Amino acid sequence: MKTIALILISLLGLTSMTMAQDKLVTKTGHIWFYSHAPLEDIIAHTHLAAAIIDLSKGSIAVSIPMMSFEFKKALMQEHFNENYVESAKYPKARFTGSVKNLSGLNFKKNGIYKTTVTGDLTIHNVTKKIEADGTIEVKDGKYTVISKFNVSPKDYDIKIENRLSRNIASTIEVNVELNF
Predict the structure, then answer these.
(1) Separation CA 43–CA 69 (nearest Å)
(2) Greatest pairwise CA separation for the chain in angstroms
(3) Average pLDDT by stretches of 10, the chain with 180 residues
(4) How many Cβ atoms are within 10 Å of 55's Cβ, its own excluded?
(5) Residue 68 pairs with which residues in a beta bridge?
(6) Which member of 69, 117, 143, 178 lies 3.0 to 4.6 Å from 29 by CB, making a disulfide possible if both were Cys?
(7) pTM for the complete prediction?
(8) How far apart (Å, rounded) are the C-alpha atoms in residues 178 and 134?
(9) 114 burial level (CB within 10 Å; 0-12, 13-18, 19+)
(10) What SS3 string covers 122-135?
(11) What are the structural domains of the chain?
(12) End-to-end CA gap in the chain
């Protein structure tokens, strides 16, 4: 009887480990954005993006604390948080979506796999559907997700005064690097 109990406990443990391996989690995702405008370039980075990917379902969720973005100039950071994204009122940007070509990916084999992710991006309490191409690199049980896409502040009700339109691009390049 003890042997059967030990076998059952072992099997349950293995099942739990397998299920846990299907979900990848990070709290140190690197997200940065770049704005190229006639008068200046703006770049800001955060390494505090939290993300989870369910490899069996292909679902992905990312949460980014807006105040965690760091700029070269303190005044840019202040304006970003207070005047544009209103970080106190809307503290996080979120993405929830899924990998489109999940069946063509082999997460157990080393390689770089091209993929497309679709889903909902919420910034400044406005949600828009987006689609972004990227890669998932599998190397010795570690996973790296890389993507680049563009967003328009106007699409997310982020108001930019006319006098600053030569300082801030109408389209912002967003870069994602998530290491699991």
Answers:
(1) 9
(2) 79
(3) 42 40 93 93 97 95 98 94 95 97 89 96 98 96 96 94 81 97
(4) 19
(5) none
(6) 178
(7) 0.83
(8) 11
(9) exposed
(10) EECCEEEEEEEEEE
(11) 23-179 (2.40.128.110)
(12) 41
